[in-house]
Amino acid sequence: MCGILGVVAKTPVNQLLYDGLLVLQHRGQDAAGIVTSDGHTFHMHKANGLVADVFRTRNMRSLLGNMGIAHVRYPTAGDAFSSAEAQPFYVNSPFGIVLAHNGNLTNADQLRHDLYRLDLRHINTTSDSEVLLNVLAHELHACTYNDQLDPEAIFNAVAGVHRRCKGAYAVVAMISGYGLVAFRDPHGIRPLVVGRAETENGPEYLVASESVALDVLGYKLVRDVEPGEAILIDESGNFFSQQCAETSALNPCIFEYVYLARPDSVIDGISVYETRLRMGVSLADKIRREFGDLVIDVVIPIPDTSRPSALQLANQLGVPYREGFIKNRYIGRTFIMPGQSLRKKSVRQKLNAIGIEFQGKNVLLVDDSIVRGTTSKQIVQMAREAGASKVYFASAAPPVRFPNVYGIDMPTRAELLATDRTDEEIAQEIGADAVIYQDIDALVEDVRAARNAITHFDTSCFNGEYITGDITPEYLAEIEAARGRPKAPGAGLANRQLDLNLNEED
After folding, report:
1. Which residues pair with 68 in a beta bridge?
2. Model-level pTM?
3. Catalytic positions
4. 194 touches 5 (CB < 8 A)
5. Maximum distance among all alpha carbons in the chain?
6. How far is 256 from 204, CA to CA, in rounded Å?
7. List of residues 6+ apart from 316 with CB closer than 8 A
8. H helices of 242-339, where?
9. Chain segment 244-297, per-residue pLDDT in tens
10. CB neighbour list of residue 288: distance below 8 Å, 6 or more residues apart
11. Which of 258, 265, 394, 484 fits 210 for a cystine, CB–CB 3.0-4.6 Å?
């Protein structure tokens, strides 16, 4: 889960891209980067940290030009602490290309091998985004004749990317002296939208991970980028689009609606806020149906994502809704912090209980999901310390039992609380008197109801059904084993893995 932006405007875009990254900060807190284009010259600044910490006035002044891309990073692959992994990435041949990517390539190791042995390209980091950039660069070179670049060549190159790359990817890229390219994987797993603004000098276009960025920056949502589709906006503002995949189908990641996206976003025509209200209704129905013996005095959300679901659940049950936890706004989202020890430390810094809302009450806590259980366990303990008589814990999402390989940091079954545990065992593990999970069929219907044209979602972290069809038990075992290996400095891990693959083939 990263945040990406791309813009072609009539005026300098440095401030616009900075403001857009602030809006998408929830999608990644590890690193941030901006690249602008001034004719044939790229201007780049990127580093680890939050957007406001990475960019200073001197950095902004150096980002010249009316076209640019930007990225906030949430690490799912590669070295979470290396500044070399910050995006966008740059390659100088052909033409000069910069790229930012949201998602995860499931065949990145094979692509690294092919790029080195067949395409004669060097990968300098462990990031699959750099792999994707080099695949695009190679395909552009193969599709260009007499050094003449045109929309047909670019779309053919993206078609080549689709044939070679597996997994989930939403991409923005700039080609020096030509324009902005944006495309989405043929399964449409990760989100990407395009907006337009009318100016005195002509139309401007903005591509972003979520529609909220368009709203805040003054662009009107045109539509979502379709699965397998590529969009091209040249430096003059001319807009082109083409379907570049042989087959495509929309299978958006359902976890975007549960947790990842901002509630004021609309993704693939579906209001995130509306889906979260519906989740609360479904959860209330389940409580009435299967947990009618529970005496609930108050419903309290775990801020912030679960608020719509908790409010609607309380309304449906006729139980008071209260804010029982105060959130420190200066602590990042614990789920996307890179280390387990850091997550544990941050929960107490992030939330504090209001004792009067817990004292002597049977409390139903509502969260968007339970992944590792780190936060849930400490929050239940905080509720008990605040004087709660009973603590029930409800999740607006089903149990997370399987790794997510499409760009969310859920890579090992051993880290997932629900793996090989019953609901009763989960409740015991986090210290709750009962745990109530959303049913997966109800969740799918809650999201699908807002746009009946979507029939399938990626729900792999709940049911182990992987949309791309290439995820085997051996693949899952390998990524879990890799997660347990010590990190080498810089790009050493990528080089060592490449050497291993070459030796096996030779």
Report:
1. 7, 36
2. 0.90
3. 2
4. no
5. 78
6. 27
7. 280, 281, 284, 285
8. 255, 272-290, 307-317
9. 999 999 999 999 999 999 999 999 999 999 999 999 999 999 999 999 999 999
10. 317
11. 265
